[in-house]
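BUG: 3D viewer hangs when loading the predicted structure for this chain

Environment: internal workstation, default settings.
Expected: structure renders.
Actual: progress bar stalls at 90%.

Input used:
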Amino acid sequence: MPTNSKKKILTNKQQFLLSAMKPFRAMRARIGTYKKRRPHDSFKLTRRRDYSRSLELPGVMAFTAGVNKTIWKNRKVFIPLAIVYALLSGTLIGIGSQDTYTTLTDTLSETGSEIFKGNLGQIGQAGLLFVSVAGSGLSGTPTESQQIYTVILALLIWLTTVWLLRTILAGHRAKMRDGLYNAGSPIIATFLVSLLFLIQLVPIAIATIGYSAAASSGLLNGGVAALLFWVAAVLLGIMSLYWVTSTFFALIIVTLPGMYPAQAVRTAGDMVTGRRLRILLRLLWMMLCVVVTWIIVMIPLILLDGGIKSLWPNLEGVPVIPVVLLLMGVTSFIWVASYVYLLYRKVVDDDAKPA
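Structure tokens produced before the viewer hung:
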């Protein structure tokens, strides 16, 4: 006996409308999921209960000491790693020019007596020389091949350091050889996230270019125009810092097996939501540590190098400062990668704690 079906038969017009609305429904569902993960709405005050998240971290000094302790404890891995990549960098890219360094030294020696007075004159000259050396790297405009090698080596140093630390924290024995052979598989994904990182630094680059133009035109001498410029420059800097805070973690997450760049960026953004400022302050502290370390190491070394070569002029051509500059660059990059990875692990461990 036939029964009446309660299933509604749609007309062609209704089927067309349902098909046309399907992408919009999917987008609405995606936006709803996004708001659940990140409750903040732009230009709208968010209640603290909606964004407050726990983040228990050691103090900045204690955490920095922990990073140094981890690296020193595994120095048999990280010291050879720094030497290997320094040799590769010196071979493929080259080291700074000793002639350029000598020229800078002579120029500062000739003009230093007119700029600095008293016992701090030599320290002031060394400081200016350090700024010049750190800014230029004692090298001219790199060729296209040198730029490519620089990017590849930077990515490999980052990937190898993260791979070794992940292996060490997992309780396994880490070998530098295994890190060199196995860490490079996500290099394309890491490169894409690195491009995003550079794009996010564009606002700071615009502010820097604007500062140069404003300083040369006299716009910064005072008045409303100078005030507006500094407000705009600060806002551009905050924009870049806001973006790159999560991208630092994305550079770690993208090294996980099977992870895609877009997924890594999305996951990193979810991790820092509600605690971005606290993580940003840790990253700024990291950068400050690098700058202070360079000052503590390089300025006394520049003074010592100048004193020794003034006593023994035959050593003038020995590229001590360019070699140390190369080693410092590689070592600093390894330390930064270690700091970011260990900070990321602290955040992950905090999320894993029972509520």
